Amino acid sequence: MNIKWEQEWDKIYKEQGEVQFDVLPTVKVAADIFKKNNCKSIMDLGCGTGRHSIYLAQQGFKVYATDISKTGLGTTRLKAKKLNLSNIEFKQHDMRNIDFDKNSLDGILCLWTTGHGTLEDSRKNVNEIYRVLKPNGIVVIDYISVDDKNYGKGKQIEKDTFINNLEGEENIPHHYSTIEELKELYSNFSKINITPIDYYFSDKYGNKHTIKAFVVISIK
Hints:
The protein is an alpha/beta fold. It has helices at residues 8-16, 25-36, 51-58, 70-82, 119-132, 179-185; strands at 41-45, 62-67, 88-92, 105-110, 133-144, 155-158, 161-163, 174-175, 191-202, 208-219.
């Protein structure tokens, strides 16, 4: 497969702008977990246009807003500046090659990001998350389930992975996960909790959607 799908995100953010504004319930759960475990430094991995980076910064965390898209980071930076939030730093990098030192972060939040790419892309991402988390560091992350209604749409390029799968993201591969697969991906972590979740949201045209996913909460 010779598709530079990672480059699509800048195009998407430039064309669509900011389309989601509400903070996902998983983020509020994650913030509570981070606080209870005295996590101070949190990476919002794949921050997009920054709605969750802003929320975490407003909750008092030191936030590292990171994304592969320069446009997404630019939007996040402008929002933080308008709100006078000085506790956010910005970094452009690939989620499969996180440009941070080993054992440098207390926590990582990664929502609506994984599942873009192949299973091997997810594996590289998990390995990088493990590397940059401190001992006992916590990741809160989600994955689209094979039970999602969009599973099987488009062209299958490998097991449970499809291209031309979602409108607006036609050139981006989408991988759908099982609980068994996620347990294997996180087998190096000391603790793992996997919970099914249904995300309900509306697009910019007011159309309602549901995403069936799994939330993984894992401790290094």
